[in-house]
Write a structure and sequence with these properties.
15 strands; Spore Coat Polysaccharide Biosynthesis Protein SpsA, Chain A; alpha/beta; two-stranded antiparallel ribbon; 272 residues
Length: 272
């Protein structure tokens, strides 16, 4: 299995903080945001290589970071805050992290208005790196306290279909900011709407996807129909109407760092 971290955005909502530094490399306490996800990926025995796709402007930043990256074995947790939703965690993760090879991909984009979008970057990464294995995709600005082990096991058991990570944000006003899913008793997605005005549930898509190679052609088909490539949720909405897509609901703590408010919260409340 290969892991792909999406880090090709320009984070315009965080300017000027991200004018010369990519969002995933902004610090939370003692390390960059991306390292918290890397540490989760390093604990997955199924993953043998980690790819980080970025743009031409920031590729040097990521290469410099990757050359000096060291595994941090400390555990972390969030303090309480009304902006973050809590639920019962899956349990502590006691595996010892170990290094996997990190590949930095330049998506050849040099300007904000030329962005490929998350779906475009997934396609570009699969084709440029000739990826033919199961693919675990995660956003470079995700911050969470739970293990990915059960998600991977669940996803493998539902091959050859796509599985996405879900988190109950517990508030319908907050749910309007995300791609929102409804699932049946078998965890199959029966409805998915990107940023709905009237959310049917509060199950938010986390920008965490398990994509078997049999579904790579579905992504290309979606692109061929000239549909939006900037939000992966649009693809999930389209795909779930054509074939089964499954959702795994996490329990724990999750922060989507999308603006200055959420960044400030994470910086002030993430505790070692």
């Amino acid at each position: 299995m290969k892991a792909l971290i999406l880090a090709a955005g320009y984070a315009t909502r965080l300017w000027p903080l991200t004018l010369n530094r990519p969002k995933p490399l902004l610090p939370i306490k003692n390390k960059p945001i991306i390292e918290y996800s890397i540490e989760k990926l390093e604990k997955l025995v199924e993953v043998d290589n980690i790819y980080v796709v970025t743009n031409t402007k920031f590729v040097k930043n990521f290469k410099k970071w990757a050359s000096g990256y060291k595994t941090d074995k400390k555990t972390s947790a969030f303090g309480s805050n009304s902006d973050v939703r809590f639920s019962v965690p899956e349990g502590p993760d006691f595996e010892i992290p170990y290094h996997k090879k990190i590949h930095i991909i330049d998506d050849k984009i040099k300007a904000v208005d030329e962005r490929r979008g998350s779906i475009g970057d997934i396609i570009y990464s699969v084709e440029s790196e000739n990826i033919k294995d199961d693919l675990l995709v995660i956003a470079g600005d995700n911050l969470f306290n739970f293990s990915l082990n059960n998600f991977v096991k669940f996803s493998i058991s539902h091959k050859p279909y796509v599985t996405i990570g879900l988190f109950d944000v517990g508030d319908k006003q907050l749910a309007k900011k995300y791609g929102i899913a409804a699932i049946n008793d078998g965890a199959k997605i029966i409805d998915f709407i990107e940023k709905p005005k009237q959310p049917p549930t509060t199950l938010a898509a986390m920008c965490l996807y398990f994509i078997p190679p049999a579904r790579f052609s579905s992504i290309k088909e979606y692109k061929s129909e000239s549909l939006p490539l900037d939000l992966a949720g649009n693809f999930i909405e389209w795909l779930s109407k054509k074939e089964p897509v499954y959702g795994y609901t996490f329990k724990g703590i999750w922060v989507d760092i999308g603006d200055k408010k959420s960044l400030k919260y994470a910086q002030e409340n993430y505790k070692e």
